[in-house]
Design brief:
Blueprint lengths: L1 H9 L2 E3 L3 H7 L3 E4 L1 H5 L5 E7 L5 H10 L5 H9 L10 E6 L4 E6 L2 E6 L1 H4 L8 H7 L5 E7 L14 E9 L6 H10 L3 E5 L4 H10 L8 E3 L6 H7 L5 E3 L3 H13 L4 E5 L5 H6 L2 E5 L4 H6 L2 E3 L7 H39 L7 H19 L12 H29 L4 H5 L1
Parallel strand pairs: 2-9, 2-12, 9-11, 10-11, 12-13, 13-14
Antiparallel strand pairs: 1-14, 3-8, 4-5, 5-6, 6-7, 7-8
Helix pairs in contact: 2-14, 14-15, 14-16
């Protein structure tokens, strides 16, 4: 395990818990976030659809008062830079639960938010925009004025839209290759995103994720029974809140799957704690990095196959080494039982057993530990070890017992027989 951790450090992977390297080798469900994993974390505004004239300055004023703690707001502030000069009376930071951020300026409350969460029953009035941009995998952000100040709580009345801001992320160059590797290894890749499900699905399809056309809006999943049914049918989950991410992980684990989760934000922490193995990006939040088992220091998801291979190397080589240790243990037990029932002395001297241990176990297993054995891990560890070691141990025990008894029958010296 220590050797594996050292090798992974050379691949810019920080390991917080050594045993997670082994766990990842057994993973058969990999849950990934869209932004920062499939796509690059950096966002840019690709287009703006205005529904009111002369609102650029208002957008810039509101954005200028917001914190740049996420890539979405960074992109908006960069696009609308150079206009803001008004200070906000109140600021509402982005909430994963409510899907909006906003500020009160000149007594009016303005918000940036996900269309479904801020337009409410007027959401369907703007399907032409969703069809135009979501189908290309771009993210849509609404900027509008609240009818009444929500005070940071759920918006209960549709906002008056001023503009639709279109944001895009570039898909990582290595995404297709990485997800193709996991598909060949029999690992199901599941996308869990806070973005619109159609947008997330289109991005996942472009990244080469199998069955990515099967998507669901997580707002329609009302309870755990719905989530358990959804994991059987869908590959992409959109508009997921942090609590639902945790419930999706729990549902997979309840189905007997070994689950890994990748992410980069505070909203991934609950899922990280629930997953069998959690992987954070170095560009993500400090909380996510502290909770995760592994941190990808160069924010490159393509390091994942190397981590899986190191886990397989550890398991396969420990299995081989354990088998060699057990051969000596099992034949010693079998010979002990035979000599007790036959009333004979144990045929080996302690110094001879030390020689056997050194040449037959110690030296070979030291070198076997470094073998590049990346075969897929199958079966139960103890069962596999016993299947490999017992036939050899039985052969040695029968051989030793046979030679000893023939030698004693022919009158040979017991010390010579032992040698």
């Amino acid at each position: 395990l220590v050797v594996s951790v050292r090798r992974l450090a050379g691949k810019s992977v920080l390991v917080h818990e050594m045993n997670c390297v082994e766990t990842l080798a057994r993973v058969n469900v990999l849950c990934v976030d869209k932004t920062g994993t499939i796509t690059r974390p950096e966002m840019s505004v690709s287009d703006v659809v205005f529904y009111r004239d002369n609102v650029t300055a208002i957008i810039a004023d509101v954005a200028g008062n917001m914190s740049s703690d996420n890539e979405t707001m960074k992109a908006v502030k960069e696009y609308f830079s150079g206009h803001n000069d008004k200070k906000a009376e109140r600021i509402y930071s982005f909430s994963s639960q409510n899907k909006y951020s906003g500020a009160v300026i000149d007594g009016k409350c303005y918000v940036f938010g996900a269309p479904e969460y801020v337009l409410l029953n007027q959401y369907d009035d703007y399907t032409d925009i969703y069809d135009r941009y979501s189908d290309r995998g771009e993210r849509i952000l609404v900027f509008g004025e609240c009818v009444s100040d929500p005070q940071g709580n759920i918006i209960e009345e549709p906002v008056i839209p001023y503009a639709f801001i279109i944001l895009e992320n570039e898909i990582r160059d290595t995404a297709k290759e990485t997800f193709g590797y996991f598909e060949k290894q029999g690992v199901d890749v599941v996308v869990i995103s806070g973005d619109n499900p159609v947008t997330a699905s289109k991005v996942a399809i472009r990244a080469g994720i199998r069955n990515a056309e099967n998507y669901v809006d997580a707002t329609t999943l009302k309870n755990e029974a719905d989530i358990k049914a959804a994991i059987q049918k869908y590959t992409v989950f959109g508009r997921v809140i942090p609590e639902q991410k945790k419930q999706i992980i729990q549902a997979y684990k309840a189905a007997g799957r070994v689950v890994a989760m990748t992410g980069d934000g505070v909203n991934d922490v609950l899922a990280f704690k629930e997953a069998d193995c959690s992987i954070a990006m170095a560009a993500g939040s400090d909380v996510a990095k502290n909770v995760a088992n592994l941190v990808l220091l160069d924010n490159n998801f393509s390091a994942m196959p190397h981590i899986v291979n190191e886990g397989r190397r550890v398991i396969n080589n420990i299995t081989m080494s354990a088998s060699m240790f057990l051969i000596k243990t099992i034949f010693s037990i079998l010979i002990s039982i035979a000599t007790i029932f036959l009333g004979q002395a144990y045929p080996f001297e302690p110094i001879q057993l030390s020689l056997i241990s050194t040449c037959g176990v110690g030296i070979p297993t030291f070198f076997l530990t470094y073998e590049a054995n990346f075969e897929q891990v199958k079966g139960n560890f103890l069962t596999t070890v016993l299947e490999k070691s017992f036939p050899f141990a039985l052969t040695i025990a029968i051989g030793a017992a046979t030679i000893t008894n023939i030698g004693l029958y022919l009158g040979y010296d017991p010390l010579m027989l032992a040698t």
